[in-house]
Amino acid sequence: MAAAVDRAMADIRAIEGANTEGGTITRAGVEAIRDRLIELTSHRELFSLAAFPPPGEGDKLNSCLYRLAQDDDDRFVLYANASRGGVGTPAHNHTTWAVVVGFEGQELNRFYRRADEGGVEQVDQHMVEAGTGVAMLPDDLHSIHIDGPALNFHCYGLALERLDRREYYDVRTAAWKVFPAHTDIREARLDRVC
Prior knowledge:
- The protein is 16% helix and 39% strand.
- The protein is of the alpha+beta class.
- It has one domain (2-187): Jelly Rolls, CATH 2.60.120.
- The strands form four sheets. Strands 9-6-11-4-3-14 form a six-stranded mixed β-sheet, with helices on one face.
- A hairpin with a 2-residue loop joins strand 1 and strand 2 (24-25).
- The longest helix is centred in the first third of the chain and has 17 residues, at 2-18.
- It is globular and about 50 Å long.
């Protein structure tokens, strides 16, 4: 598994390098990254679901992230997101490119645009499941909704621990707010465990 992930991450670095304009990855670039991750997850025999258990019934959170790969400068990060279901997020951006690819179960991704009145309007949606994925630029807005058990792969241009300016729309207060950097990540880098 480690060798396959290393090859995929090397390809993803090359894809980003070949698909950047003005210092920002292009839509074609993130879509090519999505396609490369779909190819990686098609090798289902490489990934044991037992290696990525979701939080238990008594845990506070319904999902958790396992770090599979991350460059020393915190770029090019791949996580396995394990969920027992009951997960929903507000509309948010990432401030870096992001790709979500399905492995087991389903994750509904809704996509939005900023409304003229200050909120968000849904413009599309896509069900992420085995063999499919979504690709987002830094300012793209989406929300995720997971009803049942799921395992998906999330890849980012910068580690979630460094993303301290991600905006989300709080429908209760009708205001844009900032997510704190995500710090609850389980270490599953293949060079460190197995």
